[in-house]
Write a structure and sequence with these properties.
heterodimer; A: alpha+beta; Alpha-Beta Plaits; four-stranded mixed sheet; three-stranded antiparallel sheet; 7 helices; 19% strand; B: 446 residues; Formate dehydrogenase/DMSO reductase fold; globular
Amino acid sequence: MSHRWGMSVDLDRCTGCEACVVACHAENNISTVGPEEAERGRAKHWMRVERYWEGEFPDVRLKFRPVLCQQCETAPCEPVCPTYASSHTPEGLNAQIYNRCIGTRYCANACPYNVRFFNFYNPVWEKPLDLQLNPDVSVREQGVMEKCTFCVQRINAGKIEAAANSRELRDGDIRPACVQSCTANALVFGDLNDPESAVSRLSRSPRGSKLLEELGTQPKVTYLERELWQESEGIRRG
Amino acid sequence: MADRLASDLLRPVFQTTRKFYALIALLSGLVLCGVAAWGYQLYYGFGVTGYNWPVYWALHETNFVFWIGISHAGTLISAILRLVNATWRRPVTRCAEVITAFALMIGAMFPLIHLGRPWLAFYLIPYPSERGIWPNYRSPLVWDFFAINTYLLSSLLFLALPMIPDFALIRDRATGLRRKLYASLSLGWQGTPKQWHRLESAMHIMALAILPIAVSVHTIVSFDFSMAVVPMWHSTIFGPYFVAGAIFSGIAALIVVMAVLRKALHLENYLLPLHFQNLGKLLLLMSLLWGYFVFNERLTAWYGNSPHEMNVFWSTQAGEYSPLFWTMVLFNFVIPFPLLAIRRLRSIPTAVVASSCVVVGMWLERFLIIVPSLARKSTPYSWGSYSAEWPEIVIMVGSFAAMALLYALVSKLVPIISIWELKVGEHPRMKAAATVPETETAGELL
């Protein structure tokens, strides 16, 4: 059976601790750019926790929304890439092929979620931080776009492990870094083609909605929330 | 008469003043600064520019669209004027065609400059690779690649064809190395009736072919934006809007260039007030058309009241980008309209003022299409802003200097007014066929 990877994000559980952000940086060799560059909007967070305030003071509610690549079924980033650097894998992932990327940044402009990041400089890891680089993930040079891969290296490792033990992949075998590090179990990852997987069940939940679903991107990330998130005038940028 | 034409118009080709060398040195210096700035950007990384998340397209892309727009000056206008056989076109066509060729070359540099890894730009070429990888034909950037190359090739042909008889003319008057150069450039032109006939039909075919090409090129440039689901980009009006804007800025650039040439090369007897008046009328028409498109684009967005679009709409209408927006309206419509519409005000200086305004205004238009939309995409958390850093500004200045430099050099290489076409116009039979006012004005001065 072919896989179709997806994720559910429970906003009622998310505490905004940002452990997922840190884990993602460590797992995927995402270089940090320093405070000045981050201030200029050069930070690369494949996973970010957006903060929104709802209502007027003193009746305010703070809401967290972890945003990562939504791995859209009909992804706007894919057709616009002139070199197929951004392309769809048979398992429904939006792959970014670094070697093919020439840095037009068109994919990032077309992406309504702004989850694609450009390497403005060559990444640097000061010693001894270079020793912590994950050998399963290639580092990206200046001029290349990068984005969340759903930890494709862990997906592949999980499949190899299962094959080595001559068994089928089980739900929960594969956990991307963000899912693994989520203290509140807000993030659940799995195969959407398996109707019994946790992520499939959660994605069918009446609490579920997709981010910017109206644009027809068919995201594979489902957000769960007791009250549906509604954009209202009281929302300010966090 | 014919001799005076030739000696007047060939003077810049055979005589070079010290001022000219000074100008070339200055312009080359500026171009080198631009090249150095690009080298700096390549060496240290794209981070030296003001680009940031989420404004991943800004000044380089603005200049790309701007220069491709300017290129519509030439070929399109001269093709139309040739096809409708407007006799006043004769001294204007080559000026215009030269703008096209160079503006396209400069414009086509920006897609390279804007790349993160320009050394891999050859991935866009559909070459047979043993891994069977082709460019992605669904990408508007690949459409761009083909459209611009087609346009560049055809406009170079369109520029070079009517130069052949003039190259032969220079060949016959020159000596030494220059004679050899022009002998090869004139491709064995002898002026036989058969050759004239072939030249005429070739030019007619090119004039017909280049019109749809020119329209398609700027439509495809507009597709770079309108194909993406980005607020205020995803609009059906962009194709015609961009084409109209391109012709608009192209005519304006042509008027400015003609005025400079008229002064610098003493062409007062050839580039007449009539030419500026006629082109001014065309510019007025395009100003109205441009205003109409902007009105349509803005009104439908505002009336539709989609929250995604309104964020961008208000940031240009009343927010961060509103000073630029209203300057654009001022320069593209409010100033040029009376200057070009009121008969009493029509003169060469007012046409130049109006045109300079339009060139600046159209540059702002390109910027305002690209940047505010990216800065205000659909999720408010990821809104951003953009301000340029020096590398992209120096590259932009370099591109303007490159245009002037190439133009100055080509005016040394070929007569910038087509001599043989003027001679054809001077023929008694053509003169009789010409429209009455033109014969009057031209007759007085020639």
